[in-house]
Structures are given as C-alpha cells and as structure tokens.
Design a protein that fits this description.
By secondary structure, the chain is α+β, with helices and mostly antiparallel strands. Helix content is 41%, strand content 12%. It is built from 16 helices and ten strands. The chain has a three-stranded antiparallel β-sheet with strand order 1-2-3. Strands 4-5-8 form a three-stranded antiparallel β-sheet, with no helix packed on it. A two-stranded antiparallel sheet has the order 6-7.
C-alpha cells in the first residue's frame, strides 16, 4: 500500500512522520513536519509546524518527501535574526504569534494578546528585560483585568519560553514572579430537564434553535455543529458524521477547517426525536431556499429574534458561516426579549458563581447527564476527547451524590 511505502520511506528522516485518516471511506495521509529548535540550555523544543495532505494517488512519494524536507529545513533556521541589543519585544511577539497561528482555537486569543500583552511589552527593549518589569506588568493587568490575569500570565510565560528557546532572551523560570488568583472560577450553567424544555420552547422561532437542540442532545462542540452540512446527516441511520469544525483566522473571519487537536472524524448517533426534528426542519427550509448536501445546517440568516423586523444573526457579515461565540452573544443579547420565567432568565444571564448560557452549555449539560449512565471510555469517544483526563472532569460527584455515598458508609465499622 502507498501508505506503508510512505511510512517506510520517512522512518529514518528526522522530523517527518505519517498520519492516516479515512473520512467517508476514503484514505488521506498527512505527512507531518516537525521543526527542532535548540536553545542555549541544550534542550530541544519540538513542535508540529506543518502537515502536507496526500490522497495516496495524485503525487509520487519522492517529490512529496523532497517538498517536506525543504519545508522542514526552512522552519529549522531563523529566517530573520533578532538583535537583542536593539530590538523591542514587538518582533518577538510577531514571531511567537506566527508560530502559534495553526494551533486550534489560538486565533480567538488575538484580542487578549493585543489588549493585555502588546500594550505593555511592544515598545520594551529586549536588553532591558527584568523580573521587576514582569511584576510591573502583573500589577497593571491585575488592576484592569483581575479575572483574566491567570490566562494572560500563562500567555506571557509561553512567549518568554519561546524567546528563550530561540536564543533571543535569557531568564530563569524559577525567579519569575508568582501570582495568586483570588477570583473564583465560574462554573458552567446546568439546566434541569424541565428548564431545558422551557428554554427550547421559548426559542423555537429562533434560527439558532437547531444549534442548541443538537449541542444539548449530542454533546458536540459548538464549532463542530456550526460546520455540519446536510450531507453529514444520515436520516436512515439516525447519525451525524463529524469531520470538520469552524475556526477563525487572524482577522476573526470564520472558515471551516480541521477538528480540534487534529482529532479523528467520528460518527455520532442521535435520538429519534432529534432525527425527526431534523427531517421536519429540512422539509421546512426546502420551500424557502436551495438546499444541497454541502449546505450548512446552521447558517447566518434572518432571524425573527433579531430586532423588530428581523435581521441576519451576524448582520455585519456576508458569510454564511457562524461561530459559536456569535451564537452565544446573539442569544444572551436577546434574552430580555424572550418571555422566560424570571428564575430561569437569571440563570441564563449568569451569576457571580456561574456563567450565563453560551455555546458550550449544551455540551456540558449532555456530558454531565451522560456520565451517570456511561463509563469514561464510552463518553470520551462520544465527546471526541483526545485525553481521558478531559472526560474525567464530568465524573466529579456533586454534594447530593456525596451525601448518598456517606450514607453507604454508615455501618462501616459494625459487624454485619
């Protein structure tokens, strides 16, 4: 097989490896290219930089490998040297961001980078770096953005680590200032079965109704639901084929790309009620628009919930693709227009301890309820988690469950 030939051909070539994916019974191979950069500390930092997609037929193996080696060599050497004696952190930040651009979901952090890191560090000279400078930045950031200091500091430390590995800067990790985050982390909003039914009933006319219906009842990520097309739905088998996800580029323009963490495509089975709804919804929109296998199920279209006359969900964009963040903002913005019970409306708006309703709410609710009936490996497969530790979060017992557990230990030291 071509796959085996390619694998054998690159096994002794540093930085190259082969990964195989088979969406829709068609084989694709990814020649992954790794760039090894060594810092003055002698250790290497290995990062996946590029991947060349190959269908196994259209190109021969040797030219493919030659192209990969050329890309690897280009990545391994710095194309533009930074002079630490004269240059500012702006150049390092640009290079660091470019190296992170292909990391899933990293594009969403561009706003945080520009507002909370660049404003302080852009004009600072590399030669003037000190731990006192880091402490000064922490104090200023804490003052204006206390809730996000933990995430922002993590971003800064990753930036400095990149600078150290590439010999732009020398510092001691152990001497870096430590921070104490006093603001408690908010938990996700969880709805009871009754609250979920009420919420669905009140947003039934909203064009985003199918989004929340699918996230709550399948546990898919918001970006996966936004990328689903009618061709991914199999009504006879009652299933959805999940092979892509919505992402945002540097300018926050949405596009459809790979799954999060380069995950494997998976088939998700849906309940009969959801399958019937999709069948009815498909017939309903067939009368008003042209629908094909490549048509998105969730589109940026006119929504009755948007203002009085009804406008597109994202009125300033001509793209049909919606992002989960836009969907969550749309629902939260129009919550006051929906005649929901006061207690449920407050819950969806969020409290000091819980977040309001968002694109991830449905996935969290599904995973929490499913964890009572499935083992961790089954749920991991359903949710598309790469690491089992991500799935284990949903198996944390709540206060009521702990009470029941302690009751079982009532006669622990008594003779039975």
């Amino acid at each position: 097989m071509n796959h085996e030939k390619l694998k054998k051909a690159v096994e002794n070539i540093e930085g190259l490896s082969v990964m195989k994916k088979s969406p829709r019974n068609r084989d694709y191979y990814f020649l992954r290219i790794r760039s090894v950069r060594r810092g003055f500390h002698g250790k290497g930092s290995v990062n996946v930089e590029r991947a060349i997609r190959w269908d196994g037929k259209t190109r021969s193996i040797q030219p493919l490998i030659a192209e990969a080696i050329k890309i690897r060599d280009g990545l391994s050497k710095s194309t533009e040297k930074i002079r630490a004696s004269k240059d500012s952190f702006s150049r390092i930040i640009d290079k660091w961001y470019k190296s992170k651009k292909d990391v899933p979901s990293f594009g969403q952090k561009k706003l945080m980078l520009n507002k909370r890191v660049r404003e302080f560090w852009d004009e600072k000279k590399i030669k003037d770096f000190s731990y006192g400078m880091v402490q000064q930045w922490i104090d200023e950031t804490k003052k204006h953005h206390p809730r996000s200091i933990g995430n922002t500091y993590g971003m800064l430390k990753d930036l400095l680590r990149f600078a150290k590995i590439n010999n732009y800067l020398d510092y001691d990790q152990e001497r870096m200032p430590r921070i104490k985050v006093k603001t408690p982390k908010k938990s996700r909003t969880k709805l009871s079965n009754e609250e979920y039914e009420i919420f669905l009933e009140y947003i039934r006319k909203c064009k985003l109704y199918p989004f929340y219906r699918m996230t709550f009842e399948t546990g898919l990520r918001g970006q996966e639901v936004c990328a689903l097309t009618w061709g991914d739905w199999n009504s006879e088998e009652s299933s959805l084929y999940v092979s892509k996800a919505v992402k945002s580029d540097d300018n926050f323009k949405p596009y459809i790309g790979e799954l999060k963490n380069y995950g494997e495509p998976r088939k998700v089975f849906i309940n009969e009620a959801l399958n019937t709804y999709l069948r009815d919804y498909f017939k309903e929109i067939m009368d008003s628009e042209k629908v094909g296998k490549r048509s998105l199920i969730i589109k940026n279209k006119i929504c009755p919930l948007s203002l009085e006359g009804g406008e597109r969900v994202q009125k300033w964009s001509d793209s049909e693709i919606l992002t989960p963040r836009i969907i969550a903002s749309h629902i939260r913005y129009h919550l006051n227009k929906i005649d929901l019970p006061a207690a449920l409306k407050d819950k969806l708006h969020g409290t000091k301890r819980t977040m309001g309703i968002g694109a991830h709410t449905g996935r969290v609710n599904f995973a929490t309820k499913a964890s009572k009936h499935l083992n961790q490996f089954e749920l991991q497969k359903m949710l598309g988690h790469k690491d089992l530790q991500s799935t284990a979060i949903y198996y944390q017992p709540d206060e009521e469950e702990m009470k029941e557990s302690y009751k079982k230990l009532k006669n622990l030291y008594k003779n039975t």
